[in-house]
Amino acid sequence: MSTDFQQARIALGMRLRELRTEGGFTGRQLADRLNWTQSKVSKLETGRQTATHDDLKAWAEGVGTPQAAAELSARLRAFESGTRSWRRQLAAGHKPVQDTLTAEHDRTRVMRGWEDAMVVGILQTPDYARHIFSAYVDLHQSPRDIEDAVRARIQRQESLYRPGKKYHIVMGESALRALICPPAVMAAQLDRLSGVIGLDTVSLGIVPFEALLKLPPANGFWIHDERLVIVEDWHAELWLDQPDNIALYRRVWDTLAESAVYGADAHRVIARCRRALGDV
Fold this sequence. Notes:
By secondary structure, the chain is an alpha/beta fold. It folds into 2 domains: about 5-80, 434 Repressor (Amino-terminal Domain); about 85-275, 2-Layer Sandwich (Endonuclease, Chain A), CATH 3.30.870. The protein contains 13 helices and 7 strands. The protein has helices at about 5-20, 25-35, 40-45, 55-60, 70-80, 85-90, 95-105, 125-140, 145-155, 175, 185-195, 245-260, 265-275; strands at about 85, 110-115, 165-170, 200-205, 220-225, 230, 235-240. Strands 1-7-6-5-2-3-4 form a 7-stranded mixed β-sheet. The chain is elongated.
């Protein structure tokens, strides 16, 4: 969970406690009034549980200040927009998530991406993407709209050929080695990466296993025009638009990019990963 998210949840909890005490209720009295457990009241007030909008409406009415419900919901929406849980995002499947990302790509001129776990979506082949989506559908137990999601992801790749766009992508060699698909699919994916090197709109760097690192590789992320960072975690995507967060991720990206190789050297790293797959 992000620090920003937790701080916002604690701040909301403090506001809930303030409303309760102003209304003259103890935690036990409010819990009884709302037919909740006392532990739920305590967790909401201390930021250990995220309230729902229904919880906030019930709280405001329960302490006698129903007019506060709109304020409380606005606070919740503010930090919900920054932390987008996969459970909530994937309720309708993966395609709507891909459509949202496509909209962000369309409004971004310069993108910087880092990934150490898998090939980035903007460079994936359809077969590779199909295996990625299948794995995440199983993990999150979300609707199986895999083919629609693959089509949406591949369609987004049209932006690689639009004048005025620039993708600065850095991946760790481990992303090129992780067999999250059959070897033949991975071989085709590596061939695709080799073909990307040289595109006017793409700068592709690979951090070899033997490279010296100033930072340990961590979560994948994308920086959109210095206005937004999207970070992917197991439970959620973090959409960060605070200038200090954006600056931090830009420093991380710059540091990792210093360890990458490009051009012919990147070709050689991709080629040795391809040779490791054998004759497939």
